[in-house]
Input
Amino acid sequence: MTSMFDSYQLGGLRLPNRIVMAPMTRARATADGLTTPAIATYYAQRATAGLIVSEGVAPNERGQSNVKAPGLYTDEQVAAWRPVTDAVHTNGGRIFAQIMHGGRVGHEAVQGHQPVGPSAIALDGQVYAGTALGFQPAPVPYALSTREAAAEARVYGEAARRAVEAGFDGVELHGANGYLIQQFLSSGANHRTDVYGGSITGRIRFAVEAVEAAADAIGAGRVGLRISPGGTAWDTVEEDVPQLYGALTEALAPLGLAYLHTLVTTDDDTLIGLRKAWPGTFLVNPSEQIGPVEATREGGEEWLAKGADLISYGRKYLANPDLVERFRTGAPLAPTPEHMTFYQDDTAFISYPSAQYA
Output
């Protein structure tokens, strides 16, 4: 039986185990999207993961969704990431950059301009607009034209190229949790009638072009895609989920990507169907979207038995930088910090000890 502690060949990378650190918003970059020494320490502390996927990184100014999120669209941002990737590699780790374009999940006070999306449809909810404004109703996004949508898909390729320049081993495109790629997939956010909307073929087009752009830039074997089929984060609505993601999987399968990374946001039958249809590495986060229920070791082992190749964990890594060793030895897990501290308290951010020092 496959074990979490078995090694795994992921393209050109030999992973020492099958436990992946999932991407999590950390919001600790500078105002101009530069990473800091504390961020380098944070990721280096967690380098025993088979693979680290970074927090979401903005591919351009339009894609900036969160306050104090890092970017990969200026030379200064690329240079700031190099000490981070160097620190991870020095500690024996491997790290992919998650390229995250917020699309309509944003605010002019954060991005400096109106957010964009597939259609001029605001999400039903509030977004964080900075400390001065706090939470504000989500604005109506600017609907990208056909030409602009094609250009925005190509941005993922430009960011992937910069990620490799910054020392990352590869990239993961964020196609989950209600951000731009999933907005194009969504029947709620995408009311287009051009080639990027309408039918399932139209709704998957942006995702396919974004992945192709990244694959063309750095090689398909260094590109992953994260999805959350049927997920409802940020007011996402998707119809015909098995057919939609079946079509997406079929379109991407010939590319030879590094992996497909899914959250458990739909029924097991649909996800197992995707596993059977996907010819490459299948990575599962055994968690139901962003919510109160954390993924467990038992849930990860169940998905390995169902055919997953790799298992990712997010919040468990916050207070357990040595999560792999704690799982391996049965050492107690430190409890996940309170939600309100996730994006605050820079000292605690890097002060969680390993089990041997706890």
